[in-house]
């Protein structure tokens, strides 16, 4: 019940709802808990509710940090 | 698939594994607890333990809501469902959890009780709206991730004026459980738990943020690294924990920066604060009765509280005495240490809750980890770069 993956918001509906697509599987979910969702956003969905938005810049930064580990540097900057 | 495949890159995982192997000190061992069942599942599914040096041990924690729900509350739910006027609405994971006397919600449904599985808390509201002559009870369970969705459902039911909707609330709190694990001395004859740091939950943290973990860093001197659920997230978090231990730091760090903010989801926190309050105490499978570890509806919402509406009186019931779910949930034993594991207890016929949910330590080990038993005593295979 906790295994959720990011889902793409394809349409915002009335009553704090949105349509999401998970690799083509389309569902309607609640976005009552997340402000300002727009089509194109990726959201973490849990039991039919969006819990948070994925920040694309931070997602890139994580991948950059992981790539850096491979080069043997250890100057990872994280939010501490 | 965006934001998934990039974090499942085997070559990158091998690079992190090499960095971990470089940075661990050979003269000491490391033991970290991944609190959350989502991480337990990822560690088993992607074979992360095989990528770690022999002196880095991952201890599986109790962060699986299905696994920690005590037998008595499943019994309560079955009693509610057997009432002729009640439709019990539940998340699917709960259907096969053993109750006392060998029952389960699935067996109660087969025997005629009106029990329905839903994906979302809002589906429960829809059923109440469509069937006004049924008393619809939503079996609400879970940590801080599923609590706000329950609150949203309650608010919508109130807006719609649905008087036939109520909530059987079993929501529990992550930080309290973490504290309980650290504070509980090992029982006589059981090995002590030597946790040196935590992989912090991913989705729980999207809601509660980073602040609630500060006490573990500051008072217990245990590093916490909040991590995403993908294998590279977990690997990176383990490396960050090793670095903290090596540098004798104890801080709350956030590896899952793409989804977790320092403050968390304030909208959800405010909503939950409005709807729920702390229970004096709540029983957890594996941890026993823990004070102020769970939530109930505030008095203002008493009308929607199924425990009040149907006068639920929970009777504590013992687990199967042979089942080792308790010590496994506390990180003191491993699934294979249980004599029921893989014989009487499998995902098809679970004896204990750790085998029911795919996030449970036993189910994860059964599905992905059993081959490792054959390697017991053997040296760990040398690291190979994934091709």
Automatic annotation (TrEMBL), chain A:
<protein>
    <recommendedName>
        <fullName>Hydrogenase maturation factor HypC</fullName>
    </recommendedName>
</protein>
<dbReference type="GO" id="GO:0005506">
    <property type="term" value="F:iron ion binding"/>
</dbReference>
<comment type="function">
    <text>Involved in the maturation of [NiFe] hydrogenases. Involved in the biosynthesis of the Fe(CN)(2)CO cofactor.</text>
</comment>
<dbReference type="GO" id="GO:0051604">
    <property type="term" value="P:protein maturation"/>
</dbReference>
<dbReference type="Pfam" id="PF01455">
    <property type="entry name" value="HupF_HypC"/>
</dbReference>
<dbReference type="GO" id="GO:1902670">
    <property type="term" value="F:carbon dioxide binding"/>
</dbReference>
<dbReference type="InterPro" id="IPR001109">
    <property type="entry name" value="Hydrogenase_HupF/HypC"/>
</dbReference>
<comment type="similarity">
    <text>Belongs to the HupF/HypC family.</text>
</comment>
TrEMBL record, chain B:
<protein>
    <recommendedName>
        <fullName>Hydrogenase maturation factor</fullName>
    </recommendedName>
</protein>
<keyword id="KW-0175">Coiled coil</keyword>
<dbReference type="GO" id="GO:0070025">
    <property type="term" value="F:carbon monoxide binding"/>
</dbReference>
<dbReference type="InterPro" id="IPR042243">
    <property type="entry name" value="HypD_1"/>
</dbReference>
<dbReference type="GO" id="GO:0051604">
    <property type="term" value="P:protein maturation"/>
</dbReference>
<feature type="coiled-coil region">
    <location>
        <begin position="235"/>
        <end position="262"/>
    </location>
</feature>
<dbReference type="GO" id="GO:0051539">
    <property type="term" value="F:4 iron, 4 sulfur cluster binding"/>
</dbReference>
<dbReference type="GO" id="GO:0005506">
    <property type="term" value="F:iron ion binding"/>
</dbReference>
<dbReference type="InterPro" id="IPR042244">
    <property type="entry name" value="HypD_2_sf"/>
</dbReference>
<comment type="similarity">
    <text>Belongs to the HypD family.</text>
</comment>
<dbReference type="Pfam" id="PF01924">
    <property type="entry name" value="HypD"/>
</dbReference>
<dbReference type="InterPro" id="IPR002780">
    <property type="entry name" value="Hyd_form_HypD"/>
</dbReference>
<keyword id="KW-0479">Metal-binding</keyword>
<keyword id="KW-0408">Iron</keyword>
């Amino acid at each position: 019940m906790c295994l959720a993956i990011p889902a793409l918001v394809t349409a915002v509906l009335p009553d704090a709802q949105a349509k999401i697509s998970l690799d083509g599987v389309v569902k309607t979910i609640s976005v009552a808990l997340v402000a300002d969702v727009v089509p194109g956003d990726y959201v973490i969905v849990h039991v039919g509710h969006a819990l948070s938005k994925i920040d694309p810049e931070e997602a890139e930064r994580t991948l950059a940090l992981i790539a850096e580990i491979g080069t043997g540097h250890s100057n990872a900057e994280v939010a501490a | 698939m965006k934001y998934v495949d990039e974090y499942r890159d085997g070559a990158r995982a091998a690079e992190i594994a090499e960095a971990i192997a470089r940075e661990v000190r050979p003269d000491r061992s490391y033991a970290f607890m991944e609190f959350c069942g989502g991480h337990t599942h990822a560690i088993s599914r992607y074979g992360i333990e095989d990528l770690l040096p022999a002196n880095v041990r991952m201890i599986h924690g109790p962060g699986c809501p299905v696994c920690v729900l005590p037998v008595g509350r499943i019994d309560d739910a079955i009693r509610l469902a057997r009432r002729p006027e009640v439709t019990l609405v539940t998340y699917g994971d709960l259907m096969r959890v053993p109750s006392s006397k060998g029952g389960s919600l699935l067996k109660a449904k087969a025997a005629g009780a009106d029990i329905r599985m839903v994906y979302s808390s809002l589906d429960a509201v829809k059923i109440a709206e469509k069937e006004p002559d049924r008393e619809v009870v939503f079996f609400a369970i879970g940590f801080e991730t599923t609590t706000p969705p329950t609150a949203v459902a309650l608010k919508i039911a109130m807006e719609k004026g649905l008087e036939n909707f109520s909530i059987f609330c079993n929501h529990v709190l992550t930080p309290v459980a973490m504290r309980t694990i650290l504070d509980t001395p090992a029982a006589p004859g059981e090995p002590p738990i030597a946790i040196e740091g935590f992989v912090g939950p991913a989705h729980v943290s999207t809601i509660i943020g980073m602040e609630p973990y500060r006490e573990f860093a500051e008072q217990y001197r245990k590093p916490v690294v909040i991590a995403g659920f993908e294998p590279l997230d977990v690997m990176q978090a383990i490396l960050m924990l090793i670095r903290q231990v090596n540098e004798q730091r104890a801080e709350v760090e956030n590896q899952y920066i793409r989804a977790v903010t320092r403050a968390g989801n304030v909208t959800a926190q405010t909503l939950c604060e409005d709807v729920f309050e702390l229970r004096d105490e709540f029983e957890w499978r594996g941890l026993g009765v823990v004070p102020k570890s769970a939530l109930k509806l505030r008095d203002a919402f008493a009308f929607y509280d199924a425990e009040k509406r149907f006068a639920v009186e929970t009777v504590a019931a013992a687990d199967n005495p042979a089942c080792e779910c308790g010590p496994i949930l506390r990180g003191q034993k491993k699934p294979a240490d249980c004599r029921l594991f893989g014989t009487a207890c499998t995902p098809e016929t679970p004896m204990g809750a750790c085998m029911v949910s795919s996030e449970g330590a036993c189910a994860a080990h059964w599905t992905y980890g059993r081959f490792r038993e054959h390697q017991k005593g053997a040296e760990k295979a040398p690291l190979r770069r994934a091709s």
